[in-house]
Amino acid sequence: MPDDMPTILLYLGAAWLAGSLIGLERSFHGRPAGFRTHALVCVASAMLMLVTTHQWQWLDSSIPEATLRTDPTRMAQGIMTGIGFLGAGVIFKEGLTVHGLTTAASIWITSALGILFGVGFLLPAVVATVATLLTLSIFRWVEDLLPSEYYADHQLSYLIDAVPEEEQVRELLKQHGCLVKTMRYRLMEHGSVFQYHMVLQTHDRRNLVKLAEYLRHHQSNVLEFQLAPAGGE
Asked: How does it sit in the bilayer (predicted)?
């Protein structure tokens, strides 16, 4: 067994542990790429870097070591390019909401951590792992405390002979703390149904809940409504 085999195993083990910890956080929040994905990404990145930095151990022993010209940065570039396709696979858009951006970013940084472990930069790799875990956990709580604006995709459908004026619709939404940012109109069902389609803005997500409750219980002339809050990870 080569003398540096324990060191290689240490790097691979550390990469596996770091990827697993990040993956556990993602799995806990029900994300599509979780424990196994992050662990495999981190170990694979570390393994590929080890292959590059230990070329003389798997090439023909008759080749003089002095003739080898290793360039680990090329392997790192290839890893980060390839991981982009994996990250893109977890991102999808639904209405105003984009899902998977944080998970894609976590896969990307997990791969970068694997590269650090693979070349033996243990201290920066450990520090970056801790920083990543704090960002994914504590920053979620910080985001909830920060004041922010919320958006929602909103549709209101009426029978053609019971359509309220646009100003009445805007006033109703204003009473529930919602501002209309864009407004579109649609005539459906061979002219028997009219639809207002809008994007709402509010400073309190609870206003959207109250609006939905009001429309459900107090607006008998509403044929159909949809209220889809925007948001991601």
From this structure: Multi-pass membrane protein
Q: What stretch of H or E contains 187?
A: strand 179-188
Torsion of CA 117, 123, 125, 129, to 10 degrees: 140
**DSSP per residue over 106-132, as a string?**
HHHHHHHHHHHHHHT-HHHHHHHHHHH
Q: Please write the tens of the pLDDT for every residue from 107-121.
A: 999 999 999 999 999
d(CA 139, CA 153): 26
Note whether 54 and 61 are within 8 A (CB): no
Determine the Cα–Cα distance for residues 205 and 141; give it in Å rounded to an integer.
16
Rg (CA), the chain: 27
Q: Which domains does the chain have, with CATH numbers?
A: 5-145 (no CATH), 150-229 (3.30.70.260)
User: What pLDDT score was predicted for residue 25?
Assistant: 86
Q: The pTM is what?
A: 0.69
